[in-house]
Design a protein that fits this description.
alpha/beta, UDP-N-acetylmuramoyl-L-alanine:D-glutamate ligase, Protein-Tyrosine Phosphatase, Chain A, 3 domains, 8-stranded mixed sheet
Protein backbone atom coordinates (compact mmCIF):
# COMPACT_ATOMS: atom_id res chain seq x y z
CA UNK A 1 0.00 0.00 0.00
CA UNK A 2 1.38 3.40 -0.97
CA UNK A 3 1.58 5.62 2.10
CA UNK A 4 0.01 9.10 2.04
CA UNK A 5 2.11 12.18 2.70
CA UNK A 6 0.33 14.87 4.76
CA UNK A 7 0.47 18.59 4.04
CA UNK A 8 1.47 18.52 0.39
CA UNK A 9 0.33 21.71 -1.33
CA UNK A 10 0.34 21.84 -5.08
CA UNK A 11 -0.59 24.29 -7.86
CA UNK A 12 -4.28 24.84 -8.23
CA UNK A 13 -4.56 23.44 -11.72
CA UNK A 14 -3.20 20.05 -10.69
CA UNK A 15 -5.33 17.49 -8.91
CA UNK A 16 -4.68 16.57 -5.31
CA UNK A 17 -5.58 12.98 -6.12
CA UNK A 18 -2.75 12.71 -8.65
CA UNK A 19 -0.23 13.98 -6.15
CA UNK A 20 -1.52 11.70 -3.39
CA UNK A 21 -0.75 8.71 -5.61
CA UNK A 22 2.32 9.85 -7.50
CA UNK A 23 4.37 12.02 -5.17
CA UNK A 24 4.43 9.65 -2.18
CA UNK A 25 6.09 7.07 -4.38
CA UNK A 26 8.90 9.45 -5.21
CA UNK A 27 9.28 10.75 -1.67
CA UNK A 28 8.92 7.50 0.24
CA UNK A 29 10.55 4.93 -1.99
CA UNK A 30 13.28 6.94 -3.67
CA UNK A 31 14.86 6.11 -6.99
CA UNK A 32 14.91 2.35 -6.55
CA UNK A 33 11.33 2.20 -5.33
CA UNK A 34 10.19 4.43 -8.16
CA UNK A 35 11.88 2.08 -10.66
CA UNK A 36 10.14 -0.96 -9.19
CA UNK A 37 6.73 0.75 -8.99
CA UNK A 38 6.85 2.20 -12.49
CA UNK A 39 8.20 -0.99 -14.05
CA UNK A 40 5.48 -3.08 -12.44
CA UNK A 41 2.44 -0.90 -12.90
CA UNK A 42 3.18 1.59 -15.66
CA UNK A 43 5.31 0.87 -18.71
CA UNK A 44 8.63 -0.28 -17.21
CA UNK A 45 12.23 0.46 -18.09
CA UNK A 46 14.08 3.71 -18.51
CA UNK A 47 11.19 5.46 -20.25
CA UNK A 48 9.06 5.13 -17.14
CA UNK A 49 11.80 6.63 -14.97
CA UNK A 50 12.23 9.57 -17.34
CA UNK A 51 8.51 10.26 -17.26
CA UNK A 52 8.34 9.98 -13.49
CA UNK A 53 11.25 12.30 -12.79
CA UNK A 54 10.24 14.80 -15.46
CA UNK A 55 6.77 15.12 -13.98
CA UNK A 56 8.29 15.40 -10.52
CA UNK A 57 10.57 18.23 -11.61
CA UNK A 58 7.72 20.12 -13.27
CA UNK A 59 5.54 19.63 -10.20
CA UNK A 60 8.23 20.93 -7.86
CA UNK A 61 8.96 23.99 -10.00
CA UNK A 62 5.28 24.93 -10.24
CA UNK A 63 4.89 24.39 -6.53
CA UNK A 64 7.84 26.64 -5.72
CA UNK A 65 6.51 29.38 -7.98
CA UNK A 66 3.10 29.26 -6.38
CA UNK A 67 4.55 29.13 -2.87
CA UNK A 68 6.58 32.25 -3.60
CA UNK A 69 3.52 34.04 -5.01
CA UNK A 70 1.43 33.05 -2.00
CA UNK A 71 4.10 34.28 0.41
CA UNK A 72 4.06 37.66 -1.34
CA UNK A 73 0.24 37.83 -1.13
CA UNK A 74 0.49 37.18 2.62
CA UNK A 75 3.18 39.80 3.21
CA UNK A 76 1.12 42.43 1.36
CA UNK A 77 -1.49 42.27 4.16
CA UNK A 78 -0.04 43.66 7.41
CA UNK A 79 -2.74 42.32 9.78
CA UNK A 80 -3.67 38.65 9.43
CA UNK A 81 -6.16 37.31 11.96
CA UNK A 82 -6.89 33.60 12.43
CA UNK A 83 -10.02 32.66 14.40
CA UNK A 84 -9.94 29.15 15.86
CA UNK A 85 -11.77 27.22 18.56
CA UNK A 86 -14.75 24.90 18.92
CA UNK A 87 -17.78 27.20 18.94
CA UNK A 88 -18.41 30.78 17.86
CA UNK A 89 -15.67 31.12 15.22
CA UNK A 90 -17.93 32.44 12.47
CA UNK A 91 -19.69 34.91 14.78
CA UNK A 92 -16.42 36.35 16.05
CA UNK A 93 -14.90 36.52 12.57
CA UNK A 94 -17.91 38.38 11.18
CA UNK A 95 -17.94 40.77 14.14
CA UNK A 96 -14.24 41.59 13.70
CA UNK A 97 -14.69 42.15 9.96
CA UNK A 98 -17.67 44.46 10.51
CA UNK A 99 -15.91 46.42 13.28
CA UNK A 100 -12.66 46.97 11.39
CA UNK A 101 -14.42 48.02 8.19
CA UNK A 102 -16.59 50.41 10.20
CA UNK A 103 -13.37 51.98 11.49
CA UNK A 104 -12.09 52.46 7.94
CA UNK A 105 -9.58 49.60 7.96
CA UNK A 106 -10.23 47.75 4.70
CA UNK A 107 -10.77 44.17 5.78
CA UNK A 108 -11.61 40.98 3.91
CA UNK A 109 -12.73 37.78 5.56
CA UNK A 110 -13.31 34.12 4.92
CA UNK A 111 -15.75 32.12 7.04
CA UNK A 112 -16.63 28.44 6.92
CA UNK A 113 -19.61 28.16 9.27
CA UNK A 114 -22.95 26.97 7.97
CA UNK A 115 -21.94 28.31 4.56
CA UNK A 116 -18.41 29.02 3.35
CA UNK A 117 -18.20 32.65 2.20
CA UNK A 118 -15.81 35.43 1.27
CA UNK A 119 -16.68 38.81 2.80
CA UNK A 120 -15.45 41.96 1.05
CA UNK A 121 -14.63 45.37 2.57
CA UNK A 122 -17.90 46.86 1.28
CA UNK A 123 -19.90 44.17 3.10
CA UNK A 124 -20.79 42.13 0.03
CA UNK A 125 -20.59 38.37 0.35
CA UNK A 126 -19.63 35.71 -2.20
CA UNK A 127 -20.41 32.05 -1.45
CA UNK A 128 -17.57 29.58 -1.93
CA UNK A 129 -18.73 26.91 -4.35
CA UNK A 130 -16.97 23.59 -3.94
CA UNK A 131 -16.96 20.80 -6.50
CA UNK A 132 -15.34 18.47 -3.98
CA UNK A 133 -14.93 18.26 -0.22
CA UNK A 134 -13.37 21.18 1.63
CA UNK A 135 -9.57 21.46 1.50
CA UNK A 136 -7.21 23.70 3.47
CA UNK A 137 -5.55 24.56 0.16
CA UNK A 138 -8.56 26.84 -0.51
CA UNK A 139 -6.68 29.58 1.36
CA UNK A 140 -4.31 30.01 -1.60
CA UNK A 141 -6.96 31.21 -4.08
CA UNK A 142 -8.53 33.27 -1.27
CA UNK A 143 -5.34 35.29 -0.85
CA UNK A 144 -5.17 35.68 -4.63
CA UNK A 145 -8.62 37.27 -4.39
CA UNK A 146 -7.35 39.49 -1.56
CA UNK A 147 -4.52 40.64 -3.83
CA UNK A 148 -6.99 41.41 -6.63
CA UNK A 149 -9.23 43.36 -4.23
CA UNK A 150 -6.20 45.37 -3.09
CA UNK A 151 -5.43 46.26 -6.70
CA UNK A 152 -9.04 47.30 -7.29
CA UNK A 153 -8.99 49.39 -4.12
CA UNK A 154 -5.79 51.18 -5.08
CA UNK A 155 -7.05 51.96 -8.58
CA UNK A 156 -10.34 53.31 -7.22
CA UNK A 157 -8.76 55.41 -4.48
CA UNK A 158 -10.02 53.26 -1.58
CA UNK A 159 -6.61 51.84 -0.76
CA UNK A 160 -5.33 48.28 -0.41
CA UNK A 161 -6.70 45.56 1.86
CA UNK A 162 -5.11 46.16 5.26
CA UNK A 163 -6.44 43.19 7.20
CA UNK A 164 -7.78 39.69 6.64
CA UNK A 165 -9.84 37.63 9.07
CA UNK A 166 -9.81 33.89 8.40
CA UNK A 167 -11.87 31.26 10.18
CA UNK A 168 -9.70 28.20 10.72
CA UNK A 169 -11.07 25.14 8.93
CA UNK A 170 -8.25 22.78 9.93
CA UNK A 171 -8.92 19.75 12.12
CA UNK A 172 -5.80 17.59 11.87
CA UNK A 173 -2.66 18.64 13.70
CA UNK A 174 -0.58 18.87 10.52
CA UNK A 175 -3.12 21.19 8.93
CA UNK A 176 -3.09 23.44 12.01
CA UNK A 177 0.66 23.77 11.46
CA UNK A 178 0.07 24.51 7.77
CA UNK A 179 -2.25 27.40 8.69
CA UNK A 180 0.43 28.74 11.04
CA UNK A 181 3.51 28.42 8.85
CA UNK A 182 2.30 28.60 5.26
CA UNK A 183 -1.36 29.28 4.56
CA UNK A 184 -2.07 32.31 6.81
CA UNK A 185 0.97 33.03 9.03
CA UNK A 186 -1.29 34.99 11.39
CA UNK A 187 -0.21 38.06 13.32
CA UNK A 188 -3.15 37.61 15.71
CA UNK A 189 -4.90 34.39 16.78
CA UNK A 190 -8.21 33.94 18.58
CA UNK A 191 -9.21 30.64 20.23
CA UNK A 192 -12.82 31.16 21.22
CA UNK A 193 -13.14 28.12 23.47
CA UNK A 194 -11.95 24.54 23.87
CA UNK A 195 -14.64 21.87 23.88
CA UNK A 196 -14.64 18.23 22.82
CA UNK A 197 -16.06 17.86 19.31
CA UNK A 198 -13.92 16.39 16.52
CA UNK A 199 -12.70 13.43 18.55
CA UNK A 200 -10.99 11.42 15.75
CA UNK A 201 -8.85 14.43 14.83
CA UNK A 202 -8.43 16.21 18.18
CA UNK A 203 -8.90 13.56 20.83
CA UNK A 204 -11.51 12.83 23.52
CA UNK A 205 -10.57 15.50 26.09
CA UNK A 206 -10.37 19.28 26.30
CA UNK A 207 -6.65 18.97 26.98
CA UNK A 208 -6.02 17.00 23.78
CA UNK A 209 -8.20 19.44 21.83
CA UNK A 210 -6.17 22.35 23.20
CA UNK A 211 -2.93 20.65 22.15
CA UNK A 212 -4.15 20.46 18.55
CA UNK A 213 -5.59 23.98 18.48
CA UNK A 214 -2.39 25.44 19.94
CA UNK A 215 -0.45 24.30 16.87
CA UNK A 216 -1.94 27.18 14.84
CA UNK A 217 -0.27 29.82 17.05
CA UNK A 218 3.03 31.29 15.76
CA UNK A 219 5.80 32.25 18.20
CA UNK A 220 5.52 35.80 19.58
CA UNK A 221 2.08 36.35 18.03
CA UNK A 222 -0.84 37.87 19.92
CA UNK A 223 -3.18 35.15 21.22
CA UNK A 224 -6.65 35.93 22.61
CA UNK A 225 -8.17 33.13 24.71
CA UNK A 226 -10.92 32.59 27.25
CA UNK A 227 -9.34 29.74 29.26
CA UNK A 228 -5.99 28.68 30.68
CA UNK A 229 -5.01 25.80 28.38
CA UNK A 230 -2.60 27.98 26.41
CA UNK A 231 -0.58 29.72 29.12
CA UNK A 232 2.62 27.81 28.30
CA UNK A 233 2.82 28.94 24.67
CA UNK A 234 5.55 31.26 23.44
CA UNK A 235 3.06 33.95 22.49
CA UNK A 236 1.56 37.14 23.87
CA UNK A 237 -1.40 35.52 25.62
CA UNK A 238 -4.34 37.82 26.36
CA UNK A 239 -6.93 36.33 28.73
CA UNK A 240 -10.31 37.78 27.82
CA UNK A 241 -12.69 38.03 30.77
CA UNK A 242 -13.96 41.61 30.72
CA UNK A 243 -17.70 42.21 30.49
CA UNK A 244 -18.73 44.45 27.61
CA UNK A 245 -21.52 47.04 28.00
CA UNK A 246 -22.99 46.03 24.65
CA UNK A 247 -25.45 43.21 24.08
CA UNK A 248 -26.88 41.58 20.98
CA UNK A 249 -29.11 38.50 20.86
CA UNK A 250 -27.09 36.95 18.02
CA UNK A 251 -23.61 37.56 19.46
CA UNK A 252 -22.47 35.54 22.44
CA UNK A 253 -20.97 37.68 25.25
CA UNK A 254 -17.62 35.89 25.00
CA UNK A 255 -17.36 36.75 21.29
CA UNK A 256 -18.20 40.36 22.13
CA UNK A 257 -15.51 40.39 24.83
CA UNK A 258 -12.85 38.99 22.50
CA UNK A 259 -13.60 41.53 19.80
CA UNK A 260 -13.52 44.35 22.34
CA UNK A 261 -10.15 43.19 23.77
CA UNK A 262 -8.60 43.23 20.31
CA UNK A 263 -10.08 46.60 19.33
CA UNK A 264 -8.78 48.17 22.56
CA UNK A 265 -5.30 46.82 21.82
CA UNK A 266 -5.56 48.42 18.40
CA UNK A 267 -6.33 51.77 20.05
CA UNK A 268 -10.04 51.98 19.20
CA UNK A 269 -12.89 52.98 21.49
CA UNK A 270 -16.16 51.29 22.35
CA UNK A 271 -17.87 53.18 19.50
CA UNK A 272 -15.93 51.01 17.03
CA UNK A 273 -17.37 47.86 18.55
CA UNK A 274 -20.85 49.40 18.57
CA UNK A 275 -20.52 50.23 14.89
CA UNK A 276 -19.43 46.66 14.23
CA UNK A 277 -22.44 45.27 16.10
CA UNK A 278 -24.73 47.52 14.07
CA UNK A 279 -23.19 46.32 10.80
CA UNK A 280 -22.98 42.67 11.90
CA UNK A 281 -24.60 40.19 9.51
CA UNK A 282 -25.01 36.74 11.10
CA UNK A 283 -24.17 33.45 9.47
CA UNK A 284 -27.21 31.73 8.02
CA UNK A 285 -26.94 29.05 10.70
CA UNK A 286 -27.24 31.65 13.48
CA UNK A 287 -30.97 32.13 13.86
CA UNK A 288 -33.12 33.39 16.69
CA UNK A 289 -35.75 31.05 18.15
CA UNK A 290 -39.08 31.61 16.49
CA UNK A 291 -42.65 30.98 17.71
CA UNK A 292 -44.92 28.34 16.26
CA UNK A 293 -48.58 28.59 15.39
CA UNK A 294 -49.59 26.36 18.27
CA UNK A 295 -47.89 28.55 20.83
CA UNK A 296 -44.66 26.60 21.00
CA UNK A 297 -41.10 27.62 20.18
CA UNK A 298 -38.54 26.15 17.81
CA UNK A 299 -34.87 26.71 18.67
CA UNK A 300 -32.75 26.21 15.49
CA UNK A 301 -29.49 25.37 17.29
CA UNK A 302 -28.38 22.65 14.85
CA UNK A 303 -24.91 24.20 14.67
CA UNK A 304 -24.49 23.34 18.37
CA UNK A 305 -22.79 19.96 18.23
CA UNK A 306 -20.17 19.62 20.95
CA UNK A 307 -21.03 17.85 24.19
CA UNK A 308 -20.71 20.85 26.48
CA UNK A 309 -22.85 23.22 24.45
CA UNK A 310 -25.54 20.66 23.65
CA UNK A 311 -26.02 20.02 27.35
CA UNK A 312 -25.99 23.74 28.17
CA UNK A 313 -28.59 24.45 25.48
CA UNK A 314 -30.97 21.76 26.75
CA UNK A 315 -30.60 22.88 30.36
CA UNK A 316 -31.09 26.53 29.47
CA UNK A 317 -34.30 25.97 27.59
CA UNK A 318 -35.67 23.56 30.14
CA UNK A 319 -35.04 26.16 32.82
CA UNK A 320 -36.47 28.99 30.71
CA UNK A 321 -39.72 27.15 30.05
CA UNK A 322 -40.02 25.47 33.41
CA UNK A 323 -40.47 22.00 31.97
CA UNK A 324 -39.22 19.41 29.54
CA UNK A 325 -38.08 20.13 26.00
CA UNK A 326 -38.15 18.08 22.81
CA UNK A 327 -34.91 17.52 20.93
CA UNK A 328 -34.60 17.20 17.15
CA UNK A 329 -31.23 15.59 16.45
CA UNK A 330 -29.91 15.78 12.89
CA UNK A 331 -27.32 13.09 12.13
CA UNK A 332 -24.62 13.19 9.44
CA UNK A 333 -22.76 10.15 8.19
CA UNK A 334 -19.49 12.12 8.13
CA UNK A 335 -19.92 13.32 11.73
CA UNK A 336 -20.63 10.04 13.50
CA UNK A 337 -18.74 11.02 16.65
CA UNK A 338 -21.37 13.64 17.44
CA UNK A 339 -23.91 10.84 17.88
CA UNK A 340 -21.80 9.45 20.73
CA UNK A 341 -21.45 12.92 22.24
CA UNK A 342 -25.21 13.43 22.14
CA UNK A 343 -25.78 10.01 23.75
CA UNK A 344 -23.45 11.10 26.56
CA UNK A 345 -25.45 14.31 26.96
CA UNK A 346 -28.73 12.38 27.15
CA UNK A 347 -27.34 10.24 29.97
CA UNK A 348 -27.17 13.41 32.07
CA UNK A 349 -30.24 15.37 30.95
CA UNK A 350 -32.77 12.65 30.05
CA UNK A 351 -35.04 13.90 32.87
CA UNK A 352 -35.22 17.27 31.08
CA UNK A 353 -36.14 15.85 27.66
CA UNK A 354 -39.55 14.62 26.60
CA UNK A 355 -39.10 13.31 23.02
CA UNK A 356 -35.98 12.80 20.91
CA UNK A 357 -36.70 12.97 17.18
CA UNK A 358 -33.88 11.79 14.90
CA UNK A 359 -33.60 13.04 11.31
CA UNK A 360 -30.83 13.03 8.72
CA UNK A 361 -28.62 10.08 7.78
CA UNK A 362 -29.52 6.58 9.03
CA UNK A 363 -32.20 7.77 11.49
CA UNK A 364 -33.25 4.23 12.51
CA UNK A 365 -29.73 3.14 13.41
CA UNK A 366 -28.95 6.42 15.14
CA UNK A 367 -32.18 6.37 17.16
CA UNK A 368 -31.52 2.79 18.25
CA UNK A 369 -27.99 3.68 19.33
CA UNK A 370 -29.01 6.80 21.25
CA UNK A 371 -31.80 5.05 23.14
CA UNK A 372 -33.88 7.03 25.65
CA UNK A 373 -36.95 6.51 23.49
CA UNK A 374 -35.44 8.22 20.45
CA UNK A 375 -37.70 8.00 17.39
CA UNK A 376 -36.48 7.99 13.74
CA UNK A 377 -38.38 10.52 11.64
CA UNK A 378 -38.42 12.13 8.25
CA UNK A 379 -38.24 15.91 7.92
CA UNK A 380 -41.92 15.94 6.95
CA UNK A 381 -42.93 13.98 10.06
CA UNK A 382 -41.01 16.34 12.34
CA UNK A 383 -42.48 19.35 10.55
CA UNK A 384 -46.00 18.06 11.10
CA UNK A 385 -45.31 17.34 14.77
CA UNK A 386 -43.63 20.68 15.43
CA UNK A 387 -46.09 22.86 13.53
CA UNK A 388 -49.10 21.23 15.20
CA UNK A 389 -47.72 21.23 18.75
CA UNK A 390 -49.39 23.19 21.50
CA UNK A 391 -46.95 25.13 23.65
CA UNK A 392 -44.07 22.68 23.31
CA UNK A 393 -40.42 23.67 22.93
CA UNK A 394 -38.31 21.97 20.24
CA UNK A 395 -34.52 22.30 20.23
CA UNK A 396 -32.56 21.37 17.11
CA UNK A 397 -29.05 19.96 17.75
CA UNK A 398 -26.29 17.98 16.10
CA UNK A 399 -25.69 19.24 12.56
CA UNK A 400 -27.24 21.92 10.40
CA UNK A 401 -26.32 20.57 6.97
CA UNK A 402 -28.89 18.57 5.06
CA UNK A 403 -32.02 17.73 7.04
CA UNK A 404 -31.44 20.55 9.53
CA UNK A 405 -31.47 23.21 6.82
CA UNK A 406 -34.46 21.57 5.17
CA UNK A 407 -36.49 21.58 8.39
CA UNK A 408 -35.63 25.20 9.18
CA UNK A 409 -36.66 26.24 5.69
CA UNK A 410 -40.03 24.49 5.95
CA UNK A 411 -40.76 25.99 9.38
CA UNK A 412 -39.76 29.49 8.31
CA UNK A 413 -42.02 29.33 5.28
CA UNK A 414 -44.97 28.27 7.43
CA UNK A 415 -47.14 31.32 7.99
CA UNK A 416 -48.48 31.50 11.47
CA UNK A 417 -48.72 34.04 14.16
CA UNK A 418 -46.67 34.17 17.31
CA UNK A 419 -47.94 32.09 20.14
CA UNK A 420 -47.47 32.32 23.88
CA UNK A 421 -44.29 30.28 23.86
CA UNK A 422 -41.48 30.42 26.38
CA UNK A 423 -39.11 33.27 26.88
CA UNK A 424 -36.16 32.94 24.51
CA UNK A 425 -33.71 32.68 27.38
CA UNK A 426 -31.07 34.91 25.78
CA UNK A 427 -29.61 34.25 22.37
CA UNK A 428 -31.04 30.74 22.24
CA UNK A 429 -28.10 29.44 20.29
CA UNK A 430 -25.58 28.11 22.66
CA UNK A 431 -23.34 29.54 19.97
CA UNK A 432 -20.24 29.37 22.00
Amino acid sequence: MIPRVPCIYIPGKLSNEAVEVFLPVVLCYGIEGCWIWSGTFVVGGRLAMVIVFTLTAVLLVLGLVEARRHRKNLNDVPIRILVNGTRGKTTLARLLIASLNAQGIRTMGRTTGSEATIIYPDGSVKPIVRKRRARVYELVPFFKEVSLESSRGVSSGLGPVQCVVVECMALQAENQVAFRDWLVRPTHVFITNTYVDHVPEMGPTRESTAQVLSLCVPRKSALYVSDSFYDGLDAKVVHVCEEVPIEDPLIHPSCMAMAWAFLKDMGFGIETLQAGVSAFVPDKGLLEPFPLRGGGVFVPSFSVNDETCMEETIRKWSSSCGGKVNVVFNSRKDREQRILLFKNVMSRVCDLVDDVLVIGDYPKKVAFYIGYGAVPCSVEEVFDKVSSSSGAVFVGLGNIKGAGEELIGKLQSCDGGCGDGCDDGGDGKGAV
